[in-house]
Amino acid sequence: MIKRKGLKSAALAIAAFSLIAGACGGSDSTVTEETVTEETTAETTAALPGEGILACQVTDTGGVDDKGFNQISYKGMQDAEATLGVTIDLLESASDADYAPNLQNFADKGCNIIVTVGFLLGDATKAAAEANPDKNYAIVDSAFDPPIANARGLVFSTDQPSFMAGYLAAGMTKTGVVGTFGGINIPPVSIFMDGFAKGVAYYNAQKGTKVKVLGWDTEKKDGTFAGNFNSLDDGKNIAKSQADEGADIIFPVAGPVGLGSAQFAKESGGKVKIIGVDVDMSISNPDAAEVYIASVLKNIDAAVLAAITDTVNGVKTSDNYVGTLANGGVGVAYTAVPAELQAEVEAIGAGIADGTIKI
Q: What is the mean pLDDT of the segment spanning 58-73?
């Protein structure tokens, strides 16, 4: 297991001090550095309701620097540290064998809320929550049925912005072929791929085109998967394979594996473009920024912050957070999309949000 700590910094500006001789009531008024520090500290403490709360995060095997969902989950932790005053801590899982020990480590440490990142931590999180009813748990990309009183799911309707991305890809392809692939065939991954393929089909229906999708079959609910979330080489090889079949736009839903696809696209000299996932990849992966035309956003940081805020406020709940286009929990970031097509895609997003377009 890999341990990293989030350290809180609070810079206090202290006024210069002096001794002031006064004639008021025949006594001296003394303003000292200690007095100013005590007053400033009291004000700071009063403004931070999360003082004394320990919020902890356990990543999956992608690690906190995955430029994707682990990293943006940790941003939610950092936001809670900055805005609520909680203390944060982090354990990274090198393998699935680390899930349970990492959770036990944080339970023993006295974390008030433990946020786990990823569907694959579902069983370990369930066991930990049931064994520690006095603590709050939240899990990204999973939820429990039946509910667990002290564990909430942080889930996202990512088929919605993925549908928009599929329409966008169909509108920008020059070869008439686009591709997608996943890390592992689990619901939080396949929902992106399914939405993307349906968005391409919607474009074809609207425009009378025949854009082909590689890597996902909407009928069989199956497609191309790397089998992991770690190997950049796998991402490179799958992207090359799809490019060899004609795909010029690829949508990898595979965490760090997708970074390999971006590297392949960069080496293609502009022949292949990528749609990012979870965060704006043109920003989070600046070394290959030029290959991204758009990114499907999953605003996990806001969901994590909401879960920690509930803990600070003394709320223990099993109610799931569901991010949608309507509530801003998901979206699309545009990097290099023609204005006219972007307007079409945005109109589709508005239709999904208000229910006039069904997925």
A: 92
Compute the CA torsion angle 26, 32, 35, 39 (nearest 10 deg): 110
Compute the distance between CA of residue 90 and CA of residue 57 in angstroms, rounded to an integer: 5
Bridge partners for 224 per DSSP:
none
Q: Are 150 and 137 in contact (CB under 8 A)?
A: yes
Q: What is the DSSP string of 147-205?
A: -BTTEEEEEE-THHHHHHHHHHHHHH-SSSEEEEEESSSSHHHHHHHHHHHHHHHHHHH
Residue 18 confidence (pLDDT)? 36
- Tokens 């090198």: give the residue: 94
pTM, whole model, 2 decimals? 0.81
Contacts for 108 with CB less than 8 Å, ≥ 6 apart:
none
Sequence-distant (≥ 6) Cβ neighbours of residue 57 within 8 angstroms: 73, 74, 77, 88, 89, 90, 91, 114, 115, 116, 117, 304
pLDDT at res. 262: 98
Q: Is the peptide bond before 146 cis (omega within 30 degrees of 0)?
A: yes
Distance CA 244, CA 239 (A): 9
Q: At what angle do helices 69-84 and 300-312 cross, to 10 degrees?
A: 40
Please give the backbone phi and psi of residue 37, each rounded to the nearest 5 degrees, phi first: -65, -45
Over residues 95-122, the pLDDT tens digits come to: 999 999 999 999 999 999 999 999 999 9
Q: What is the pLDDT of residues 329-350, one digit of tens each?
A: 999 999 999 999 999 999 999 9
pLDDT at res. 336: 97
What are 118-132's pLDDT values in tens digits? 999 999 999 999 999
What is the model's pLDDT at position 2?
Answer: 53
Q: What's the confidence (pLDDT) of residue 62?
A: 87
| CATH T-level assignment (fold) for domain 49-156+302-323 | Rossmann fold (3.40.50)
DSSP code per residue over 285-317: -GGGGGGEEEEEEE-HHHHHHHHHHHHHTT---
Domain 159-278+329-354 falls in which CATH fold?
Rossmann fold (3.40.50)
What are the helix and strand counts (H, E) for the chain? 11, 17
Nearest to 136 by CA among 302, 318, 300, 306: 318
Could you tell me the residue ranges of all domains in the chain?
Answer: 49-156+302-323, 159-278+329-354
